[in-house]
Amino acid sequence: MPVLDGYGVLHIFNKNPQLSGVPFIFLTAKTERNDFRKGMELGADGYLTKPFDERVGAVNRYRESAEPLCQPETGV
User: Fold this and answer.
1) ∠69-73-76 over CA atoms, to 5°?
2) Cα–Cα distances in angstroms (integers) from residue 49 to residues 6, 11, 53, 68, in the given order
3) pLDDT in tens, 15-44
């Protein structure tokens, strides 16, 4: 990302009360242990590296568990 990397986006999410509860999973080519550690220390919910094809199942499972967060409010 040319202007803002994933760490910066996560930082913004964490500072904004409306976004702080949104699940955040890094999808990246960065495979170094330090990169993974930095993302998790910043509060990421997951860190997936390329190639993604064998890791798609993990994303789908996480997405399914987070679906109640994504549902529109019913007003009830």
Assistant:
1) 120
2) 13, 20, 10, 26
3) 999 998 888 999 888 889 999 999 999 999
The pLDDT tens digits for 35-70 are 999 999 999 998 888 877 666 777 777 777 766 655
Residue ranges of the domains in the chain?
Answer: 23-70
* Burial of 26 per CB tally in 10 Å (0-12, 13-18, 19+): buried
